[in-house]
Design brief:
Layout lengths: L2 E2 L7 E4 L3 E7 L5 E7 L6 E6 L2 E3 L2 E7 L6 E7 L32 H4 L10 E2 L3 H6 L15 E4 L1 H5 L13 H4 L2 H10 L3 E4 L9 H4 L26 H14 L3 E6 L16 H9 L2 E3 L5 E6 L14 H16 L5 E4 L17 H8 L7 E4 L19 E4 H12 L5 H8 L16 E4 L8 H4 L35 H20 L3 E5 L30 H18 L24 E3 L8 H5 L5 E7 L8 E7 L5 E4 L7 E7 L16 E4 L3 E8 L2
Parallel strand pairs: 10-11, 10-19, 11-12, 12-15, 15-16, 16-17, 17-18, 18-19
Antiparallel strand pairs: 1-7, 2-3, 3-7, 4-5, 4-8, 6-7, 8-9, 13-14, 20-21, 21-22, 22-26, 23-25, 24-26
Helix pairs in contact: 11-12, 11-14, 14-15
């Protein structure tokens, strides 16, 4: 093999006709060694010292390299903990810019000890011109007002589906099987939000217990799709999955983890980033005089280390990664795990951080959806409502207020009403869109919807942490019996509460976020932290009984009702100048007796029943709605507003398990609202 100095950019392995250019950021190394391996046996075939260093980048051009070549790196330099340097030639390193790995990263203490060559997967040289041309993505752009998110796990979607071929179960191709896409499409959602798909490694401590990191929130590379989800070609099969969703009119959003890596803290393994530029890639504790202590990693994520996204090289890598997943892999947006960490510049959060400014000016990424989990566990880490206006934010206050209200907790009526109309106390009118709030009742980390009304306590014994892991404040209830029950009264109430929670989610202003499988009444048997359960606890069960089919039908109907209305999905008030248009002059809130609610009504802690009227003020939009909420454990008689023309038609009532049981027209101005139910009326003409 002939070698020459090559070029410092682009970073990674760049294949051309005559060979391949290798470039890697490693400013403090004395030497960077490129290791080439046989693609069938992983036997080392060549070790080549990269010949040239330009600034902080080592690079070299190697002739006669072909697509499919396996490679990795070793670095030589000082090992000085006081300066954060930890070079070790015995540790084989994954190229941070690798686009594909030949196998998953699986922790093995024996293989890691000494020379780690056998444990570390090898990067694959990829012809980026080829993958950039196939397939030709038909991009999806769904307005925020129409967006409904569906969170899913690639493996969990298809592992138990009877129509998916065995060889495709648990893979990108399985997740895009026509039967699964048909289900998601028929539900009425507009975007699938996949949990992490980038290459990751399960934490050593759970691997050694015989468990794994099923969720994948422990990355080791920001470009390569994880080969666990592929049959032969991770890149091509991921692209096929995206193309299939796009063909069905669905957006694909991926969950990305740029706040920490699988390398952990000081005693964690050296797999990639540490071995190239540990002092710059991670954040470290500082003394009161600003002196950096490289022996103590900051852990704003709670996972051992924090990535320093304010450092120019790291910020460039993250931006390159995001553009790659959009331009080459075809995704339509991102959900950023613990996104407050990205706003630290580098220690304090700012909505004007370098990362946010860089992202906002990027011509490719400005066309994507950006969803923040708006907190981390570091100092000042709770930042809900403080992200730039081009972001949407996961709203945990919506989750907690809605859960508490329907559980019957006192003093939540005012908060519930605020959450229902877009959480304008958090996302102020004029400054933030009414679609800024990503509303959820359930997320991957917590109870499923079915378990939320079935268990009062978490049941995480299978995680082998003595049931001490997972959130302890779930705002859940079992309504008389912990776990599944044969008591028909409890079962009926639980199903009604599921309908209440789901209907509230769908008809609240903002972007609804549905946990995939909730529509199928999926249970995790009370486990509210199933991150390490790669089994039937986590996988979607597609075998439905009659009760589950009824709830699925209810979910579909509810979503279609939202989509049939502008006011129920895109309310724009006259006093909100974020847009220069509006469709409602003002919102009216009612007491059960038909009187307009006044301030003291909202302050009454025992007030758990109210109604809201939404009436269009536009001549070309004939919409008039009346929604009633009753969280009391007793029926409440409501007086409906008198109409000058037309009649109230009952569109939804959660007392009924089937939509066809609804009375079509309500001629009276008085309605007996059943205990713990939602009702929705629409004015229709005779």
């Amino acid at each position: 093999m002939q070698e020459s100095e090559g070029f410092p950019h682009p970073l990674g392995a760049t294949l051309v006709k005559k060979g391949c250019n290798f470039a890697v950021h490693c400013p403090d190394a004395e030497k960077v060694i490129l290791c080439l391996y046989d693609k069938d046996t992983e036997q080392l075939t060549s070790s080549i010292d990269l010949p040239t260093k330009t600034g902080k980048i080592w690079h070299g051009f190697i002739e006669n390299i072909e697509e499919g070549q396996l490679y990795a790196y070793r670095t030589k330099g000082n090992n000085e903990s006081k300066h954060g340097l930890c070079f070790d030639e015995n540790k084989l390193l994954i190229d941070p810019y690798a686009k594909q790995l030949n196998r998953p990263v699986i922790w093995d203490a024996k293989q890691y000890e000494g020379d780690s060559e056998k444990m570390i997967p090898k990067a694959v040289v990829v012809d980026q011109k080829r993958i950039a041309l196939a397939p030709n993505f038909d991009k999806q752009v769904t307005p925020l007002s129409e967006t409904i998110l569906y969170e899913a796990h690639v493996k969990g979607l298809s592992q138990l589906h009877p129509s998916v071929p065995d060889e495709h179960k648990g893979t990108f191709l399985g997740a895009s099987h026509p039967a699964i896409i048909d289900h998601i499409k028929s539900l009425g959602v507009t975007a699938v939000q996949f949990m992490p798909v980038m290459s990751f490694m399960a934490e050593p401590f759970i691997t050694e217990k015989g468990l794994t990191n099923y969720w994948g929130y422990n990355p080791i590379n920001y470009f390569a799709p994880d080969s666990r989800y592929a049959i032969e070609d991770p890149i091509g099969e991921f692209q096929q999955m995206v193309a299939a969703y796009h063909e069905a009119g669905l957006e694909v959003i991926i969950d990305v983890v740029f706040n920490h890596t699988a390398e952990g803290a000081k005693d964690g393994p050296m797999l990639s980033f540490k071995g190239f530029d540990n002092p710059s890639f991670y954040l470290f504790e500082r003394s009161e005089y600003g002196v950096i202590d490289y022996n103590h990693y900051i852990s704003n994520s709670g996972c051992g280390n924090s990535v320093n996204t304010a450092f120019p090289y790291v910020q460039k890598m993250v931006m390159d990664s995001l553009r790659y997943w959009v331009s080459t892999m075809g995704v339509d947006g991102f959900r950023f795990d613990l996104a407050a960490s990205l706003g630290r510049d580098p220690y304090e959060f700012s909505a004007l951080s370098g990362f946010f400014r860089t992202l906002r000016q990027d011509p490719i990424l400005t066309q994507t959806k950006l969803i923040a989990e708006p907190w981390d566990i570091g100092y000042g880490g709770y930042r809900l409502g403080q992200f730039p206006s081009n972001w949407q934010e996961c709203n945990d206050k919506f989750r907690d207020n809605v859960r508490g209200f329907w559980r019957g907790d006192s003093g939540l009526t005012g908060d519930f009403a605020t959450r229902f109309l877009g959480s304008r106390d958090i996302f102020p009118k004029g400054a933030r869109s009414i679609h800024s709030s990503v509303n959820n009742i359930t997320y991957h980390d917590g109870f499923t919807l079915h378990d939320l009304v079935t268990y009062s306590e978490r049941h995480n014994e299978a995680n082998l942490e003595n049931n001490r892991d997972g959130h302890g404040h779930n705002l859940s209830a079992n309504y008389g019996n912990e776990g599944e029950t044969d008591n028909p009264n409890i079962a009926i109430l639980r199903e009604k509460q599921k309908r209440n929670l789901f209907a509230t989610l769908i008809f609240s202003q903002g972007i609804p976020h549905i946990l995939g499988g909730d529509e199928l009444s999926r249970t995790q048997n009370g486990n509210n932290n199933a991150y390490c359960q790669d089994n039937e606890i986590s996988w979607v069960n597609w075998d439905l009984d009659t009760k589950q089919k009824d709830f699925l039908a209810f979910c579909k109907y509810t979503i279609q009702l939202r989509k049939s209305s502008e006011l129920l999905s895109n309310l724009s008030l006259k006093d909100d100048n974020f847009h220069n248009t509006y469709n409602v002059d003002e919102v009216h809130w009612y007491r059960p007796d038909g009187a307009i609610k006044v301030a003291q009504d909202w302050q009454d802690p025992d007030n758990k029943a109210f109604a809201v009227e939404l009436k269009s003020c536009l001549n070309n939009l004939d919409e008039h709605w009346f929604l009633i909420f009753n969280a009391f454990d007793k029926d409440v008689r409501f007086h409906l507003p008198r109409l000058k023309s037309g009649v109230w038609q009952l569109q939804l009532d959660t007392r009924y398990k089937k939509v066809e049981h609804l009375p079509l027209v309500w001629l009276s101005d008085v309605f007996l609202q059943a205990y713990r139910t939602v009702s929705i009326f629409k004015k229709v003409n005779h």
